[in-house]
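Async update (no meeting this week)

Hi team, since we skipped the sync, here's where things stand on the single-chain job. The sequence we agreed to prioritize is pasted below, unchanged from the tracker. I ran it this morning and attached the output directly underneath so nobody has to dig for it. Comments welcome in thread, and please keep replies under the output.
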Amino acid sequence: MNSMTNTLKLIVLAVSTTLLLGACSSTANKPTLVKEKENFVTRVFNPYRPDIVQGNVVSKDLLESIRPGMSKDQVRAILGTPLINDVFHINRWDYVFLYRKGDSDDMQQRRVTLNFDGTKLAKIDADALPSEKELISEIDSIRNNLRKADR
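Output:
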């Protein structure tokens, strides 16, 4: 009778452990080839994913305030320190801005590349940049569209 009780306790312990460990794994955050429509429960219990804003925000207004012939110090005072300052290309500065809504795969990226001749700005190469107001309204519209999709 005593060995039967111990066996029963071991079986209950093994089943409980298996169930508890199985509950710890989840496929909700694992990448899949086909993005399945997430149901309400999966969205509620997923971890928080913050918006990602990285790099230097360079607006059309800021870019228009620099011009060839300016020194590196003048450009740095207006645009800030470049995100990428390559040791092998000391005369090239890259300003990159990336925005991604946390719950979305949609990403916006903009790049500005400045080339210097010595210490003077020689060439400006940039993506189409919005003004500061346009950028703010773009980010707000992305957020609003995602909130509408959640409803």
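Quick observations from my side:
The two ends are 58 Å apart (CA to CA).
The CA atoms of residues 92 and 115 lie 5 Å apart.
Reply here if anything looks off.
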